[in-house]
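The records we work with from here on pair a chain with its fold. Here is one such record, which you should read through line by line:
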Amino acid sequence: MVNLREIAFKINAKSVDYRIGKLQSIRKEIKGLQKKAVSTIFFDSPNTLTEDWAYHYGGRSEMQFNIGFEEEGFRFGLAFSLEPSQTLPDISFLYPKIFKFNCLIRERPELFKQFKLWYWRNHERSEIINVREIGEDLISVGTFIFFGKLVDNDSIDIDQVLETFDYLLDIYLIVENEKPLNDLPIKESLNEKGFTFDNKLKQPAKNVSYTTTQREIDIEIRHSFLQEALKKQLETEFGIENVSIENPINGNKIDIVVKDKKDFYFYEIKTGSSPLICVRQAIGQLFEYAYGNCKRNASLLFIASEFDADLKTINYLEFLRNEFKLPIYYKKIDLNINCANMQYSQ
């Protein structure tokens, strides 16, 4: 009979030839730990290694490298365990990680094509499906969410497991690194109505109600939350009458427009997993809004997100300003702004 503990120890032993073998050193660096608690991926502890499943040491509060047995065979990949414990009584610490995971699926869906997703809830397992964004429907205490590969117990290849873990390490780094990682190896017709500032009709929806969980993990809801926060932030600076959301232009809508005397500033909000990814997502839209009808509609352009700008993003935008005279900047959204119109359920 296949023994999972033996598999874990074989993975540890052969991992020295792979990037994943440095997982504990990587964790020490990105999490600012004083020292490595262990040197191996899996550690012989009843909390992290059993006869049926195992996750990497330290993975209890992280997206975890996970191995285990299913009815169909042996699984290996990454997982979120939403099981609370005495030391981790609240699972909401995983919400920002799930949000980053969802962003990455949208940004780079091709990264997940070779994997499948399934979950356990109330002692019942779901069907095996293609990897998708994790919605609120899956966020409940005790749920175990896994994505990766599944092979027959007779076809377990330690090198295949390690090669897969090496591939998944980049995804783990994006999700777990608090600093942005920008170097993962990894409507067309115009309605020529031009640009007219309009702040009368496009006010935020009143009495919008959604849960804290939705706000933290759902990309569309997160965008609305960020838009309201930035609107309040800009109203404080420029006045309510000078801030417009969803301002129409050439058949499109600009997230936020500010009127500053005779000048207009365009803001495009993005929920990407890092500042540079937000820039990549927003820059084409901003250029179309500002110059798409072959005239200058805005004096300044802003990419807005909830992250602090990193040095690479700052240098990139500075280069665009200096080299091409493009008036493009980065704006961090202040999440401490009170969004009075948005209602949140706890």
About this structure: The chain has two domains: 4-176, 208-345. The chain has a mean pLDDT of 88.
